[in-house]
TrEMBL record:
<dbReference type="InterPro" id="IPR000014">
    <property type="entry name" value="PAS"/>
</dbReference>
<feature type="transmembrane region" description="Helical">
    <location>
        <begin position="167"/>
        <end position="184"/>
    </location>
</feature>
<dbReference type="InterPro" id="IPR035919">
    <property type="entry name" value="EAL_sf"/>
</dbReference>
<feature type="transmembrane region" description="Helical">
    <location>
        <begin position="29"/>
        <end position="50"/>
    </location>
</feature>
<feature type="domain" description="GGDEF">
    <location>
        <begin position="369"/>
        <end position="502"/>
    </location>
</feature>
<dbReference type="Pfam" id="PF00990">
    <property type="entry name" value="GGDEF"/>
</dbReference>
<dbReference type="InterPro" id="IPR043128">
    <property type="entry name" value="Rev_trsase/Diguanyl_cyclase"/>
</dbReference>
<feature type="transmembrane region" description="Helical">
    <location>
        <begin position="89"/>
        <end position="110"/>
    </location>
</feature>
<dbReference type="InterPro" id="IPR000700">
    <property type="entry name" value="PAS-assoc_C"/>
</dbReference>
<feature type="transmembrane region" description="Helical">
    <location>
        <begin position="56"/>
        <end position="77"/>
    </location>
</feature>
<dbReference type="InterPro" id="IPR029787">
    <property type="entry name" value="Nucleotide_cyclase"/>
</dbReference>
<keyword id="KW-0812">Transmembrane</keyword>
<feature type="domain" description="EAL">
    <location>
        <begin position="511"/>
        <end position="762"/>
    </location>
</feature>
<keyword id="KW-1133">Transmembrane helix</keyword>
<dbReference type="Pfam" id="PF00563">
    <property type="entry name" value="EAL"/>
</dbReference>
<feature type="domain" description="PAC">
    <location>
        <begin position="283"/>
        <end position="337"/>
    </location>
</feature>
<dbReference type="InterPro" id="IPR013656">
    <property type="entry name" value="PAS_4"/>
</dbReference>
Length: 767
């Protein structure tokens, strides 16, 4: 019944199947019309002379009209080239076929009796040809062929029955039944063939799509939508990807599924607009990544699809493949983030900072405004990192970045350049005051104490700033300008802000020239030694001199060691210079009374030299100074370099009988651990604590007390550095320091002055 078009079974999309079935109908339409007309003319030819001409002409006209009728039906229904054919249309076509059949009844029922038996047989033969041809050509419309058969053969039976030709009637009945059965079988086979052909084409399309996707990447599931973009034929994998039941999404608009909770708000992501656009334009697309807004989580799908058209070229929707690319997408985002953010602090990194600065500079060019670039360097961070470990250092940096971030306004971006260097880009600075204000706030906030892992850490910050486009038109020049300003702040001891000035370029240049001069200073004999007395705190008697290097250069004049020693360390000149100091100091000291010792400062770089101990031995043997009269001063920084054998070297020196003092104690976050490892002779408490204690600062007093107590328990001596006033001396003495060094007892003096001091063999300076 379904094949005939008399009933729609519950399962299967028969409207669609009929469309496949009747698609072939139009193909033979012309042939059918032509055959009908030719056969009609043959009939006219047959009956001319028997039947009045007007009857024949009238019949021909009727035949023509009935043949024309189906084409009107086709056109009116608008169902041509459609993927769905309603049953009503089929019945109309059958009716039209029935009408043609009725017209064909006329020759056998009305014309033949007017002629003879031969004519009747000929007409029947023509009708039989018509029915056979119809059955063969109307595969697509089996009911039509059936009606044609029924009507024409019915009429023939009626005619032969009238002429009592019962044998022929029986033959016609058999013929008709056989023809109907074979026609039906034919129609069924035809439909099956069409269906499998269509299915194959569909499969073909899918297979090629899948293959293509497979080659290009991995597709996970198929999806399909109809012409109105509703999801059809949901596969379990697709439903799984959508995180829903298949029944839930079947028939749901595809874009609604993707938009998720944004569907109602209409606030759709850009990727969905692109998808909608493609669907509207019926364009195929490949590897389109769309954001899918689920109820709980957002994911990303990569979709490829092509529009589908039926045999007649009508658009019937899209079919494609998709895969969940959330993970790779998230990874890509992470990588993109990594490229632009500092992992440790989460602040923008150098790349992002330079980009921001570049944008700010361009804005300045355009609007004639000013932008600022601040470079920030942490003071004393290195010693925290080196003494307390990188973990503490990292946590400290994280806290620094939090504080820095809290200071940023809306037009300011801070980031980390690397190490302990940070920077800020200010987009519109107005006058220079805003830069200075921010710089001072940064120094103030970053210099407050930090609590990290039960340690209270004190670090400071130095800032250098430059103003675009005045101090530089490009990112590079502006950064260099800020860097020079920062260098100056560091040079001045840190905790300061300096604005870039053109002279700074000359300072940097000066440093370069100074380095060249320093290289030649030794051969030109520009160095000399000054000796500063160290006295016993209780008796105030002179017990030692500290040798302090002096450099006088024709171009730079008197240069302070705190200025050129770091330069010499950077330029790896400190080793020959240090050797010279050691030899010269020993040579002077042999001329002094035997109970006066000499202290020589040794830089960490010297200590790392593998032959340092030999150098010391050589200096002692060459000058004949007793090892007990020499004391080497090192700072905590000697312990900082990992893998260096500083500890061993110090032990070897102690084994020679040479004394060892720990200089500037308290400025480098002493991890105290190495105090028990290396048996220092003396701990020198830094001048800042001496000053603090004299000013009544409890913290400084506590530290000096602790150091004195600890030194005593370890059998070490203590020296207080930089005592300038009587008050300071008294405070130190009361705190229990064993030795005192400072302007109060004597400034560094020349070797000649020391010699003349000993001229009278007097070893007490005061009292
Ligand atoms: P240091 O070893 O801590 O030397 C003490 C510094 O404090 C000296 O400065 C000294 O002049 C200064 N000073 C001493 N008493 C007072 C005082 O009462 N008030 C004030 N304000 N300052 C006082 P100087 O000579 O400028 O040396 C600075 C630093 O340079 C030294 O600090 C030492 O670390 C380094 N240095 C000096 N000579 C040498 C050397 O031959 N080799 C090495 N590697 N470093 C040296
Ligand atoms: Mg010293
Ligand atoms: Mg010192």
């Amino acid at each position: 019944m379904a094949i005939l078009g008399l009933r729609d079974p519950a399962e299967g999309d028969w409207d669609h199947l009929r469309a496949i079935q009747y698609a072939g109908l139009a193909r033979y339409a012309i042939l059918r019309v032509v055959t009908n007309l030719v056969l009609g003319l043959l009939v006219c030819q047959l009956f001319i002379g028997f039947v009045p001409a007007w009857q024949l002409a009238g019949w021909m006209a009727l035949l023509g009209a009935s043949l024309y009728f189906p084409s009107i039906l086709y056109r009116r229904s608008g169902m041509v080239n459609h993927d769905h054919v309603a049953r009503r249309f089929v019945l109309q076509l059958v009716a039209a076929t029935g009408a043609i059949a009725l017209v064909w009844c006329v020759p056998i029922v009305a014309f033949a009796p007017q002629a003879g038996e031969i004519e009747q047989t000929t007409v029947w033969t023509i009708l039989a040809a018509l029915v056979v041809g119809g059955t063969l050509l109307l595969n697509a419309l089996p009911l039509g062929a059936f009606v044609l058969n029924l009507v024409l053969m019915g009429a023939s039976i009626f005619a032969y029955w009238q002429s009592d030709n019962l044998v022929t009637v029986g033959a016609i009945v058999c013929f008709s039944i056989l023809l109907a059965l074979s026609g039906f079988e034919n129609a069924r086979a035809y439909l099956m063939f069409k269906m499998s052909e269509h299915g194959l084409a569909e499969k073909d399309e899918v297979v090629s799509l899948l293959l293509r996707e497979f080659e290009e990447g991995d597709a996970d599931w198929l999806w399909q939508i109809d012409a109105s973009r509703r999801i059809t034929a949901v596969s379990p994998r697709f439903a799984f990807a959508a995180g829903r039941e298949a029944s839930e999404i079947e028939g749901m608009p595809f874009t609604q599924l993707i938009a998720g909770k944004h569907w109602e708000s209409g606030n759709l992501p850009p990727s969905l607009h692109i998808l909608s656009d493609k669907l509207t334009k019926r364009e195929s697309f490949s590897n389109l990544v769309v954001k899918v807004q689920g109820d709980e989580r957002t994911c990303w799908w990569q979709l490829s699809a092509s529009p589908r058209f039926d045999d007649s070229g009508a658009f019937i929707g899209f079919r494609g493949v998709g895969s969940d690319v959330t993970e790779s997408r998230e990874n890509a985002e992470k990588i993109a983030r990594l490229a632009r953010f500092d992992t440790l602090t989460g602040l923008p990194n150098r790349l992002q900072l330079t980009e921001a600065l570049d944008r700010a500079l361009k804005e300045c060019e355009q609007w004639h405004c000013r932008c600022g670039f601040l470079m920030i360097d942490l003071d004393r961070f290195k010693s925290v990192n080196d003494t307390l470990g990188h973990l503490v250092g990292d946590r400290l940096l994280a806290q620094v970045s939090l504080r820095l971030r809290s200071l940023m306004g809306k037009d300011e971006l801070c980031g980390r350049l690397g190490g302990d260097e940070f920077a800020v880009v200010m987009r519109d600075t107005g006058d220079g005051q805003r830069i200075s204000d921010l710089a001072n706030r940064i120094i103030d906030v970053l210099s407050r104490p930090y609590e990290v892992d039960q340690h209270t850490l004190f670090i400071g910050a130095s800032v250098g700033s430059a103003c675009g486009t005045r101090d530089g038109r490009t990112v590079e020049t502006l950064m260099r300008s800020a860097d020079l300003a920062l260098y100056r702040s560091k040079d001045e001891g840190g905790g300061r802000h300096n604005v870039y000035e053109p002279q700074l370029h000359s300072h940097a240049e000066e440093r370069r020239v100074m380095e060249i001069a320093l290289r030649k200073a030794l051969e030109k004999d520009e160095f000399s030694l000054a000796f500063q007395p160290v006295v016993d705190a209780a008796s105030e008697s002179l017990i030692a001199f500290e040798a302090l290097i002096r450099w006088s250069n024709p171009e730079f004049g008197q240069v302070s060691p705190s200025r050129f020693i770091p330069l010499a360390e950077d330029a790896r000149l400190v080793v020959p210079i240090g050797n010279w100091v050691l030899h010269r100091a020993c040579r002077e000291a042999v001329t002094w009374p035997a109970d006066v010792r000499v202290a020589v400062n040794v830089s960490a770089e010297q200590l790392y030299e593998p032959d340092f101990v030999e150098t010391v031995v050589e200096a002692l043997s060459e000058t004949g100074l007793a090892p007990q009269r020499l004391e080497l001063e090192v700072t905590e920084s000697v312990f900082l370099r990992e893998g260096s054998r500083a500890g061993e070297t110090l032990d070897q020196i102690l084994a020679l009988g040479v004394g060892l003092s720990l200089d500037d104690f308290g400025t480098g976050y002493s991890a105290l651990g190495y105090l028990s490892k290396t048996r220092f002779t003396t701990i020198k408490v830094d001048r800042s604590f001496v000053q603090g204690a004299a000013n009544g600062m409890q913290e400084s007093i506590a530290i000096i007390r602790a150091v004195v107590a600890m030194a005593e328990s370890l059998g070490m001596s203590t020296t207080a550095e930089g005592a300038e006033t009587e008050h300071e001396v008294r405070v130190i003495r009361d705190l229990g320091c064993k030795k005192i060094q400072g302007y109060y007892y004597g400034r560094p003096m020349t070797a000649d002055d020391v010699a003349s001091l000993f001229g009278g063999q007097q070893t007490t300076l005061y009292g």
